[in-house]
Amino acid sequence: MASHRRPKQPSRTRVTVLTATAAAAVALSSQAAHADPKPSKSEVKAKVDKLYHEAEAATEKYNGAKEQQDKLKKQVDALQDKVARGQDELNSLRGELGSIATAQYRSGGIDPSVALFLASDPDSFLDQASALDQLTVKQTESLQKIQSKQRTLAQQRQEAQDKLGDLADVRKALGENKKKYQGKLADAQRLLNSLTQAERAKIQQEENRASRASSERVELGNEAPASNRGAAALGAAATQLGKPYVSGGSGPNSYDCSGLTQWAFAQAGVNISRTTYTQQNDGVKIGRSQLKPGDLVFFNGLSHVGFYAGNNQILHAPKPGTVVRYESMDYMGTFQFGVRI
After folding, report:
1. Reduced to 3 DSSP states, what percent helix, strand and coil does the chain have, rounded to the nearest 5?
2. In the structure, what pLDDT confidence band is assigned to residue 148 with cuts at 50, 70 and 90?
């Protein structure tokens, strides 16, 4: 007689594993179905351009901190030089008083007031009016000179110390802004690297079409310049066509946007400040309809500046990876205002 056995039931552990595996597979397929699609070339380019604008804003803040650092360094050096010279003068005055004391000693003993001064602070000593009565006119003059010089030195030392503190703060800001713009540029490069070689080549072709090399003819029209100096500055900038954009560049081998405008105006005998945020105050603000060749034009929240060149064209140092070139204002983003130097 055949035996009838009940079929073996799967273990609870095995059922649990199979159920978990099935659930994971469903979850993965669901995630795959809803995963964000790869950004298109135009989306990547828009993000890269945004990062370049942000990097340029950080670059301008870096330039401002660098300019401030240079000024503070000069002030600190001048103050420290004053302190050193003042200390020499103080030592000479003390030497004169020592000569008085020596002469008194040879003639029979040092005046108690002079002896007291040589061993203590003249400020507290001179505050004692009764002591002044014991001094000769020459001794009084010497002590008062020393007192005045010590007070001046104390003030100069404090001022130098304050400036050194300001300098440390500016150097910290300098480092932070440099790190920020370098980070933005690195992010932009990573985005570009995510594209295929063909997509990157397409973006480069578009960039080349936007650019105008120095050998190309650009139709600028016959507009009268803003001024003789504006025309001279624009002409100087035109000699730099094809020079590369470099963050912090101020010529003559490379430029960022405000570095180019400052350099060009310097060739015209006009000193303007270093950054977009300060150059906006170096002249009179004007609207777009008032622009003439040689005026400065500002874009994108004051993070970018260039020269108006006529016929809706600007001459500028655009962004990393480009060169000084002419470009239509229509491609420049948000126009802020013009400034006539």
Report:
1. 60, 10, 30
2. confident
Residue 202's SS3 state is helix
User: Are the C-beta atoms of residues 279 and 267 closer than 8 Å to each other?
Assistant: no
Report CA-CA distances (Å) from 170 to 71, 86, 109, 257, 274.
Answer: 11, 28, 56, 22, 16
For the chain, how far is it from start to end, CA to CA, in angstroms? 114
Contact partners, residue 310, CB within 8 Å, separation at least 6: 220, 221, 222, 223, 292, 293
- State the virtual CA torsion across 40, 42, 43, 47 in degrees, nearest 10: 140
Q: Are 296 and 283 in contact (CB under 8 A)?
A: yes
Strands 296-299 and 313-316, by their bridges, are unpaired
8 Å CB contact between 113 and 68: no
CA–CA separation, 211 vs 314, rounded Å?
Answer: 11
Contact 251, 263 (CB under 8 A): yes
Confidence of residue 304 (pLDDT cuts 50, 70, 90): very high
Distance CA 277, CA 280 (A): 6
Structure-token pair, residue 276: 């977009």
Residue type at position 56: E
Catalytic site includes residue 257: yes
Q: Is the peptide bond before 244 cis (omega within 30 degrees of 0)?
A: no
Q: Does 290 have pLDDT greater than 70?
A: yes
Hey, how many other C-beta atoms are within 10 angstroms of the C-beta on 224?
A: 10
**In angstroms, rounded to a whole number, what is the distance separating the alpha carbons of residues 189 and 272?**
33
CB atoms within 10 A of CB 299: 22
Integer angstrom CA distances of residue 146 from 83, 95, 156:
14, 11, 15
DSSP assigned state of 121: -
Catalytic residue among 4, 34, 53, 304: 304
Mean pLDDT of 172-185: 82
User: Torsions phi, psi of 328, nearest 5?
Assistant: -70, 140
